[in-house]
Amino acid sequence: MFIEQGVKLGNKFAMYIWGSVLIIFASFLGQIPFIVALKFDVAKNGTAYPNDEASIMRYFDSNITLFLILISFVFVIISLIFVMRYLHNQSMHSITTSRDKVDWGRILFSFAVWSALTVGTTLISYYDNPANFVFNFKPIPFAILVVIGVILIPIQTSAEEYVFRGYLMQGFANLIKNKWFPLLMTSLIFGGMHFFNPEVVKMGPIIMIYYIGTGLFLGIITLMDEGLELALGFHAANNLIGALLITSDWSAFQTHSILKDISEPSAGVDIIVPVLIIYPILLLIFSQKYQWTNWKEKLTGKILKF
Fold it and tell me: CB under 8 Å, gap of 24 or more: what pairs does 179-182 form?
């Protein structure tokens, strides 16, 4: 059983607090290259140092900014490997899956399904309201974006899945010996991590329904499937295909994508549709393909292993 793999007598919850502190510290270390590059360029060119986050994010070309931001997640992965091995005496495999081997077929299937849905809904939006979009495609910057995205975005999304649906999911299971509490807590923390995104400023706190709902969906498929594979594939598709397809001036990442959304953002029914309609459909697809059963026990049952 996946969540129980980290539940053992010597694995006190306090160890997960210390492990989280180390991971957060590593994330801050990973931001140093961005700061150094920014200070170096300002000193070299004699330009004014950007005085707010929006200016910082737009100081460099978007490909350079994306690269420097994503580098920090390499530090997160490395720190998590260290924490798992030396603090918890566990392998990375134990927070990846309960299967003997990582099921790449599951990762690729989830990636393909969400990629297809993302492309499909983007095309529908484009043809339904073409005035809301401009063609943003530039071959060379886009090619560079593809290289950066294919290499680093899966590292970013995997780091988040390993931390939330792997490490913290098992950590909270050591605190409260049931499954609904780790599921709820990791979903709330995952959503809360997005609270300072530019999208929240533009659309208001209601968009947190989407972020928390997405965290809940990822937690459910992890518990039901006894591993991270489906969550890894979904998250990678969501961020990678999204970065390649469409950007906007108010999104967290500005990229040299194919399209640019120039509409004024507003939070409406489209915020709730993924959580209440699309995610349940995906749960149905996954449950049919992988023959999930015993939902109540897997999502809310007690953890009997001590």
Answer: 179/3, 179/223, 179/298, 179/299, 179/300, 179/301, 179/302, 179/303, 180/299, 180/300, 182/3, 182/219
The series of mean pLDDT values per 10 residues for the chain, 306 residues long, is 89 95 98 96 91 86 96 98 96 97 98 97 93 95 98 98 98 95 97 86 85 97 98 98 92 88 77 91 98 96 78
**CA proximity to 304, closest of 168, 120, 178:** 178
Contact (Cβ atoms closer than 8 angstroms) between residue 200 and residue 207: yes
Q: Is residue 306 part of a domain?
A: no
Domain count across the chain: 1
Would residue 232 count as lying in a domain? yes
Within a domain: 54: yes
* Structural Rg of the chain based on CA atoms: 20
